[in-house]
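Input (structure):
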């Protein structure tokens, strides 16, 4: 099987060069060739006019190529400095020279403009994800690379954290570093990068100056067709049906005074800054956290959810934010993962389930995923579709989607959006949590905004990003007081 076919990629010194394509287009394989994890069957790599061939990632590092993977690879109990210099610690006669190691770490962090937010002696496990990302970049810079590969570096960051990261990436470019930037987010590509190379089915479609191309053209290059609408049309106003789930006065841990209703045929968007309590609310509604106050009803019946298994039996499904650690069992097959939730429903839920697996996979438009194939070998978008198949198998009437399109390409996003709209059209109630405000605005029939563990307000379909952020930051309260 040919994964890459005659792919040419040329990067200039001191540029931010995006690599885009659908899941399975060959982006990851191309990067693994570049960093020495895979050896190509043909072609060659030239860096600053010198041809190189890597048989091991260490050779790529020595040649000036470093990568920061999407999945952070840090030791949480070790300090920032210890993580940056792991296995390469400065030595002195009696052991590690901690003073030198921490000074070198501080210098690297200062080069990123991060010395005021990340301290070399801090245990990494105490840092938020955005600062852990900076530690990974500092670690990559410690090898003094000429080329830095960043793979989906903003996947877990808030908009404010993304802006700060972009400032630091531009600083690296201005200092002469070549940055290869992999992302599915079109907005980021146009905001940050100088040029874009698009891959499709293992081939290079084109390389273009970012300023010279429109978003629709990039989408056509990636998926081979026009996506006339990024989001499927909403249901007509007032078409929502009976209340499927209602929470009144809910509280648990940092969550308090929660009031919400999810109605049949409706997609409710849930927005808010990182730490506002969105994922905690999802886990509460799924029985992973128990209510300490308030009442929950499902289809009009009071429920005191004891566990996720109980929630599943009550007709509730949760597509988790982290599909790999919480949504899938990676060594199991596509078929077994598709049946995980229905098996939790007991013998009654299992009867006849095996015969439906192929129908489920067809419904979610799974590509390259035979039922017997281990799910860990699928692309991110196809893994997400297996998670969707898992919940379709249960026939859940209340579905909670936590970051349903994070880290997947525009084609897979469109498929998932269409399926969500289809489910709502068939009577499901959907709560969609997303950090991407355009997705919230484009998909939601109604928008709830969280702040500090509670719902700060509700907005109608089509509300603006500014309106959402005013509620998310508390500025709406200030504006109201000022009036």
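Output (sequence):
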């Amino acid at each position: 099987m040919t994964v890459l076919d005659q792919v040419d990629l040329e990067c200039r010194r001191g540029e931010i060069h995006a690599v885009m394509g659908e899941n399975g287009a060959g982006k990851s394989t191309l990067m693994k060739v570049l960093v020495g994890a895979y050896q190509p069957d043909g072609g060659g790599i030239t860096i600053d006019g010198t041809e190189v061939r890597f048989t091991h990632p260490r050779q790529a590092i020595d040649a000036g190529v470093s990568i920061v993977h999407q999945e952070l690879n840090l030791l949480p109990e070790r300090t920032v400095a210890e993580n940056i210099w792991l296995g390469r610690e400065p030595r002195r006669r009696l052991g590690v020279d901690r003073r030198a190691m921490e000074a070198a770490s501080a210098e690297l962090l200062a080069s990123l403009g991060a010395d005021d937010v990340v301290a070399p002696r801090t245990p990494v496990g105490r840092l938020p994800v955005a600062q852990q990302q900076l530690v990974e970049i500092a670690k990559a810079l410690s090898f003094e690379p000429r080329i830095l590969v960043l793979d989906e570096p903003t996947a877990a960051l808030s908009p404010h954290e993304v802006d700060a990261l972009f400032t630091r990436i531009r600083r690296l470019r201005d200092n002469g570093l070549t940055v290869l930037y992999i992302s599915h987010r079109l907005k980021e590509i146009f905001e940050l990068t100088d040029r874009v190379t698009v891959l499709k089915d293992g081939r290079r479609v084109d390389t273009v100056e970012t300023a010279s191309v429109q978003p629709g053209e990039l989408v056509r290059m990636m998926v081979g067709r026009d996506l006339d609408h990024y989001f499927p049309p909403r249901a007509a106003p007032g078409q929502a049906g009976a209340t499927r789930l209602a929470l009144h006065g809910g509280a648990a841990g940092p969550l308090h005074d929660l009031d919400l209703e999810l109605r049949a045929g409706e997609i409710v968007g849930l927005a808010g800054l990182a730490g506002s309590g969105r994922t905690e609310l999802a886990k509460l509604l799924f029985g992973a956290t128990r209510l300490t106050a308030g009442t929950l009803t499902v289809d009009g019946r009071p429920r005191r959810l004891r566990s996720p298994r109980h929630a599943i039996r009550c007709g509730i499904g949760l597509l988790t934010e982290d599909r790999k650690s919480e949504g899938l069992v990676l060594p199991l097959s596509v078929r077994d993962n598709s049946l995980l939730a229905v098996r939790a429903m007991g013998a009654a839920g299992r009867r006849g389930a095996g015969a439906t697996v192929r129908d489920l996979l067809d419904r979610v438009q799974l590509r390259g995923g035979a039922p017997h194939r281990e799910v860990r070998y699928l692309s991110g978008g196809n893994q997400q579709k297996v998670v969707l198949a898992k919940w379709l198998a249960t026939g859940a009437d209340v579905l909670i989607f936590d970051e349903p399109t994070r880290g997947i390409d525009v084609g897979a996003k469109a498929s998932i959006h269409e399926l969500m709209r289809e489910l709502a059209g068939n009577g499901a109630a959907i709560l969609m949590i997303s950090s991407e405000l355009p997705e919230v605005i484009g998909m939601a029939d109604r928008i709830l905004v969280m702040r500090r563990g509670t719902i700060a307000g509700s907005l109608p379909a089509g509300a603006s990003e500014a309106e959402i952020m005013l509620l998310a930051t508390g500025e709406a309260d200030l504006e109201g007081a000022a009036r």
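Notes: The two ends are 66 Å apart (CA to CA). The domain at 16-223 is CATH 3.40.50.300 (Rossmann fold).
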